[in-house]
Design a protein that fits this description.
single chain, alpha/beta, Rossmann fold, six-stranded mixed sheet, four-stranded antiparallel sheet, 10 strands, 35% helix, globular, binds adenosine-5'-triphosphate, binds magnesium ion
Length: 230
């Protein structure tokens, strides 16, 4: 099958003052289109660093990242931003929704940035995403009037409005109770099946990992295990 993200010999070294710390060591990974993978590992093992590099938010010190057939080394900031906007949706542990806007407005913002207007098709997609998130009744609420779980589901809808090929999520259930966490997992599964979105989820939560088809464990910046569950 085709891979949508490939990491080849990725190293990451952070330099703080005169101190160099290597946090990723020769990472080689390939993710198939439409697959659903979790990345687990203890705090500080390098999961977020790896996710930022996969999402072109950060660059590797050595090695390369290929996204949807396009080699990213050497692309300038603008070209990377275009590739990112067209291909990848992000969900972070803290959702960064804009509190002075409604849930619907927050979800439409990435589409307004990409297309400079909101067309009927986008509004229909937003309605469908809110429906899938179980948020139809509250979609016009201000963010500040929503619960934590509702806010996190709104952030997922926002990440999906431009129909990205890839969704990268870093601890998407980090602040949620187990009921909300299970709900988000089943939403990911529905979206994966309905839109063929490739999911890569960084998590501490073994319940979330159990919902994915492949589980990669990172230890001290190296791949400790990579298990296909299907
Ligand atoms: N910008 C940075 N500058 C210097 N060191 C960093 C930077 N970002 C992360 N690190 C270091 O890299 C290592 C890996 O960090 P990372 O955030 O990738 O871990 P993580 O697995 O996501 O942890 P957590 O589960 O706590 O989120 C840590 O030792 C961290 O201190
Ligand atoms: Mg992290």
């Amino acid at each position: 099958m085709d891979s949508i993200i490939e990491l080849i010999g990725v190293d990451k070294i952070y330099t703080v003052g005169s101190v160099e710390t290597q946090v990723l060591f020769d990472i080689n990974l390939s993710f198939e289109k439409g697959s659903c993978t979790s990345i687990i590992g203890t705090s500080g093992s390098g999961k977020s660093t790896l996710m930022h590099i996969m999402g072109t938010l950060d660059t590797p010190t050595a090695g390369s990242v290929v996204i949807d057939g396009q080699k990213t080394d050497g692309l300038d900031g603008n070209a990377l931003a275009v590739l990112r906007n067209q291909t990848i949706g992000f969900v972070f542990q803290f959702h960064y929704l804009l509190p002075e806007f409604s849930a619907m407005e927050n979800v439409l913002i990435p589409s307004m940035i990409k297309n400079r207007k909101v067309d009927r098709q986008t509004l229909d997609r937003a309605d469908k995403l809110f429906d899938m998130m179980g948020l139809s009744a509250v979609k016009h609420y201000l963010i500040t009037k929503m619960s934590g779980g509702q806010q996190q589901r709104t952030a997922i809808a926002r990440a999906l409005i431009n129909n990205p090929k890839i969704l990268l999520a870093d601890e998407p259930t980090g602040n949620l109770d187990s009921e909300n966490s299970d709900r988000i997992c089943s939403i990911f599964r529905n979206i994966n099946q309905e839109f063929g979105t490739t999911f890569i989820v960084v998590t501490h939560d073994t319940r979330v990992a159990e919902h994915t088809d492949r589980v990669i464990t990172i230890k001290d910046g190296k791949i400790e295990s990579d298990i296909n569950r299907i």
